[in-house]
Design brief:
Blueprint lengths: L6 H6 L3 H17 L7 H25 L1 H5 L16 H22 L2 H25 L3 H9 L2 H10 L4 H25 L1 H6 L5 H4 L2 H18 L2 H4 L5 H23 L6 H30 L4
Helix pairs in contact: 2-3, 2-8, 2-15, 3-5, 3-6, 3-8, 5-6, 6-7, 6-8, 7-9, 8-9, 9-12, 9-15, 12-14, 14-15
Length: 298
Amino acid sequence: MTSSPSIKDLLALCKLKVVSLILLTAVVGMLLAVPYVPNLLLIVIASIGISLSAMSAAVFNHIIDEKIDLQMSRTDRRPLPKGKVTRNQALVWGLFLGLVGIALLFFFVNALTAVLTFLSLIGYAVFYTMYLKHATPQNIVIGGAAGAAPPVLGWTSVAGSQGIEYALLLFLIVFIWTPPHFWALAIHRRDEYKKAQVPMLPVTHGLEFTRVQILLYTVLLLLVTLLPYLTGMSGVIYLISAATLGALFLGYSVKIFLEPDNPRIAFKTFKYSVNYLMVLFVALLIDHYLLMTFGVSI
């Protein structure tokens, strides 16, 4: 008789660190959507619904990638490879999280957000994990659309489709951020991806080509992050933050390019990229409320 998995093991399937970053970008999307403080209950329910859906996608990612996870030191201690959770148990857990999350959004937020969240869940768990990840070295570029959806989901939770063009700017920032963020990790773990036969860019096109792509995408990211200021969505506080954070990110990318024999720089870049996105979105939020309170960004 199979024993029941612990709550700790079930939560380990949910990639809570990743979900916390997803939730941050979603909540910022909610708070930026309107020129006032949205209803707190709506924020809480929408946050729970989006988080549960993201956790569901993470669980399905674990199920689909179980064989790959067994071959990589970064992932071989996850609950499924270690036998702490069976595939059936994980499947039930993932379905439960997804159904509850989508239901909360549909019945207590709005249908648009529920549909978009469902599409992003399918996009990540099925289209990216089952197909793109193994089909093309551009997997993370195309599949990044699902990972860039949370700020749009947050926005539509509060404002529906009103002002959606500004939400798409947030989407674009996360979308362009994803390749240099993930390719830095892929360089660090190149040998493991090669062993697992996953066609990540450093495996298929080599390290030098990947370093160039990281540099080019980081330059593009720096330019894209200026758009909220240029379109009047945000003010000077955000502009200074975006320029400073982007310059630091660019510095890391230049180091990856100029120091190919430095084994640590790629992982340092990956870690910085996570903090970069968090601080950038917090800066958007601070700027928004300064603008809302004082009528001008100071």
